[in-house]
Design brief:
Layout: H1 2-27, H2 30-38, E1 42-46, E2 55-58, E3 64-67, H3 74-82, E4 89-90, E5 92-94, H4 100-103, H5 106-112, E6 114-115, E7 117-121, H6 128-139, E8 143-147, E9 152-155, E10 158-164, E11 180-185, E12 190-193, H7 199-207, E13 216-218, H8 230-236, E14 240-243, H9 256-264, E15 268-271, H10 272-275, E16 278-282, E17 287-289
Parallel strand pairs: 3-5, 4-6, 5-7, 7-8, 12-13, 13-14, 14-15
Antiparallel strand pairs: 1-2, 1-16, 2-3, 9-10, 10-11, 11-12, 16-17
Length: about 290
């Protein structure tokens, strides 16, 4: 008898809890829920995907911008930890170029998440990884935009601008085709992403007086010696440089010359191989590490 009463009480409590949850969900709008999780701020995650790049920007209203997706399945667990459990949408995916350590993660991601829009360079040469990915994207109706210098987009307070390339690049090095993207949060904090852009293209952008200055720089090519010359770093003049790199990688990234250049300019450095995923938060005026 006591067991029966106990079971009835448990069922009543469970039903009451579900009813309360349903009422709460009905009274709380989706924007309110998102602002609860984001605390009304911008969240930037330099995801720990090993030897590759993947950066997630989450806006105050819960829009998700993913710049590159790393070299393997690790993107799934990293994005899963950064986003609320119910979130299954990437509003904008930007592929800086089609090297495996930047694009491959989009393939499994496109099987788990709806990707609403993709930005890729107008002149990137297609490869097998892109052909697999575009098949997934077409099946879910993703809008694919081929972008170039001057293209912009505003998503919930994040202004994105393509700084490079402007035209076809005369090079067989796929790194030379990397998109350079500037992201501005509101009217204040800015971030610069340059994929694996080599020093020759860095120098060209500096000479063209491109608007490179940014508070946060994702260091090019995982800190390789082929990127991040002094002129480039001085033009960007970041307060913080983030190096996305795999622990004990076979390439020896980041190179000591890159680290020396950053040190010479007194630029603070954070590395994913040292501390894992790097989570920054901003109210658009200032930015800090969580």
């Amino acid at each position: 008898m006591r067991e029966s009463v106990k079971k009835i009480v448990i069922i009543i409590v469970a039903i009451a809890g579900l009813s309360f949850s349903n009422i709460l969900l009905q009274l709380t709008s989706q924007p309110q829920i998102e602002k609860f999780f984001t605390r009304g701020r911008f969240h930037i995650y330099f995801l720990n995907v090993g030897q590759g790049d993947a950066t997630l920007i989450r806006t105050p209203s819960g829009k998700n911008i993913l710049i590159d997706a790393g070299p393997d399945l690790s993107i799934l667990s990293e994005v899963g930890r950064a986003l609320p459990f119910y979130e299954r949408v990437i509003d904008l995916a930007i592929i800086t170029h089609f090297d495996q350590d930047h694009i491959l993660g989009f393939i499994p991601l496109s099987q788990r998440y709806q990707i609403r829009q993709v930005w890729k360079s107008r002149w990137t040469v297609e490869n097998d990884l892109w052909r697999i990915l575009i098949g997934n994207l077409k099946r879910q109706g993703t809008k694919i935009n081929q972008v170039k210098t001057g293209d912009t987009l505003l998503i919930d307070g994040v202004r994105l601008e393509i700084l490079y390339p402007e035209k076809q690049v005369a090079s067989n090095d796929s790194n030379s085709w990397s998109l350079v993207i500037k992201a501005q949060l509101g009217d204040g904090v800015s971030l610069l992403f340059s994929g694996d852009l080599p020093q020759a293209q860095e120098t060209m952008l500096v000479k063209q007086s491109a608007p490179l200055q940014a508070n946060i720089l994702q260091v090019g090519h995982h800190g390789s010696r082929t990127s991040s010359n002094l002129d480039w770093l001085q033009a960007v003049s970041p307060d913080l440089a983030v190096i996305s790199v795999g622990k004990d990688n076979k390439f020896g990234h980041p190179h000591f010359r890159t680290l020396r250049n950053l040190d010479l300019l007194n630029i603070k450095v954070l590395r994913t191989d040292k501390i894992g995923t790097i989570h920054l938060v901003s109210d658009s005026r200032i930015i800090w590490q969580e």
